[in-house]
Amino acid sequence: MAFWEAWNATCSSEAENSTLIIPRMRFLLSPITFDGPCKPQRIKILILGRLLAPESPEAWRDFDPGQWLAFRGVNGLEIAGPGTINGRGSGWWNQSCRYHPKLEGCTTLAPTALKVLSCKNIWLRDIHFINSSQSHILIEGCDGIKIENLMIEAPGNSPNTDGIHIHASHNVIINNTIIASGDDCISIGDHISNIAISYIKCGPGHGISIGSLGKSGNVVQVENVHVSKVTLQGTTNGARIKTWQVGQGNVRGVRFEDFFLDSVKNPIIIDQNYCKVRGACEELPTGVHISDVSFKNFYGTSSTNIAINLNCSLSVPCTEILMKSIYLRSAIAGQNVTSSCRNAYGIAFGVVHPSPCFQI
């Protein structure tokens, strides 16, 4: 109730700028949504202390199991540290269907630590996120978001603990952030435009991913995504785009640049052939068109033999793919790496190793 009252006072203030300060203490905080719109043009929440989620999933019995902290319909909001947001997610991980499919009552949905929903002009900075039950940060239905100087930490074997997920949002900037997670460090969903991501350190985790997209057969629209200056260590993927065969629409105008990879399983991967049974997908006449995608300045090591994997659709092939200045070698002494391409069309310049494999 103290947080409700503090938020209501801040949101209803007649001042042009209003500030809510969370002092240097530990706060056990039940699930809560901070709703707008608010009267002040600018609101600042200064987190000096530590916010702790309830440890037991039982605490969500009367709440939405998909979220812990949420801001909805708030414009002109700044959320700043140097405090900590601790999801204490191990209780959810221990009953996750992903890792415990035979457990009676296992769960597929767990709380996201922080959701920013239908907001405009948001600045999130200088906060330490720890051990969310599921994704750490979700940005959905927003326009004008800046995220910087975050530390996000969860064990590499924690299920679905994405660092930052962006969906149905535009004009998003993410930079100077360190992420260790059990899923994608940063994942980009559908209905996206004008995303700039830079100076990211990722690992453990599943890398930087666009998708998966089109699972329900919907029309996909993702464009103008620029990811640069990324360091990945021991991750499952480097730069990845993944779509379901039943999807439609476009992914275009994507730039992956200046990646350093240390023992990454799939340094460069496009997979248009997602289906319910992986590796056994029937060829369909539909697909999301992936075009105008570039991979530039990729250096480092691959922990598998296939360092470049472009698995594109026969019906809707990948087009206008550019590879430039790429040198990837095996993380295993004495082994070589190769490229694998299927229905991928593009050009390559300065791809030293492995050799490019575009269709002509």
Description of the molecule:
With 360 residues, the protein is mainly β. Helix content is 4%, strand content 55%. It has helices at residues 2-11, 90-93, and strands spanning 17-22, 26-28, 32-35, 42-47, 50-52, 67-72, 75-80, 84-86, 112-117, 120-125, 128-130, 137-140, 143-148, 151-153, 164-167, 170-180, 186-188, 192-202, 208-213, 219-233, 237-244, 248-264, 266-274, 289-302, 306-311, 318-330, 338-342, 344-353. The chain has a 17-stranded parallel beta sheet that branches. It is globular, with a radius of gyration of 21 Å. The mean pLDDT is 96.
Q: What is the quaternary state of this protein?
A: single chain
- How many helices? The count is 2
Principal-axis shape equals globular
Please provide the count of β strands.
28
Helix content: under 10%
Order of helices and strands: HEEEEEEEEHEEEEEEEEEEEEEEEEEEEE
What's the overall average pLDDT, rounded? Answer: 96
Largest beta-sheet characterization: 17 strands, parallel
Task: Please tell me how large the radius of gyration is.
Answer: 21 Å
Low-confidence stretches: none
Beta-strand proportion: over 45%
First-to-last CA distance: 64 Å
